[in-house]
Amino acid sequence: MRNSFFNVKEIEIIERICQQFENSWSYKVTNREPKRKIAVITFYGAQIRKIDERLQSKLFPSLQIRTGTVDRFQRMERPVVTVSMVRNNHQGDVGFAQKLERVNLAFPSTQELLVIVGYHDLLTSKPGTVGGVYSEVANIVSHHGAFVDVSSLEC
Q1: Is residue 82 part of a domain?
Q2: CATH no. for residue 112?
Q3: Strand ranges, E, within the chain
Q4: What's the CA gap between 35 and 95, in Å, rounded?
């Protein structure tokens, strides 16, 4: 069996994001609007298992949360997609996120909002095409005022 990775800090952040969606969407469900469809995807099975433990449907009654790996989620869409990048290390190893074809599967699968939860410095410092792609994504997000550095937040 191959080792899989998980990142507890990212899981806590994703849980907080889902709670914010729940708080902002619950009044709509009370008024008979459908549940908000959200996807949480990642490159690692261990991360999904840990996320599933935290994002139980009873805690988010106004949301329809679907989780899965990037590979299993391909060609499916949701209005809101949160991508957990998982890796955070000093060796510069971004793991599966180094393969641009896998990133292409993860990022365009959203209809309205894409949330990327990951270690910005690790992803953007990667030399070559990989770091360039992440840097470009970060620049676009920053340009639109949507970049949030959560490294100093307490979960």
Answers
A1: yes
A2: 3.40.50.300
A3: 36-42, 63-69, 78-84, 110-117
A4: 34
Quote the domain boundaries for residue 127.
8-142
Averaged pLDDT in 10-residue chunks for the chain of 155 residues: 82 95 95 95 94 96 94 83 86 78 73 87 79 85 81 55
150 is a domain residue: no
| Amino acid at residue number 5 | F
d(CA 44, CA 139): 26
Which residue carries 């005022």 as its tokens?
Answer: 145
CB of 61 within 8 A of CB of 93? Answer: no
Structure tokens at 45: 């099975």
> Computed from CA positions of residues 140, 141, 144, 149, in that sequence, does the dihedral angle turn out positive or negative?
negative
Q: Is the pTM of this model over 0.70?
A: yes
Closest by CA position to 114, among listed 141, 154, 134, 75: 141
β-bridge mates for residue 93, sequence order:
none
Structure-token pair, residue 30: 């009370």
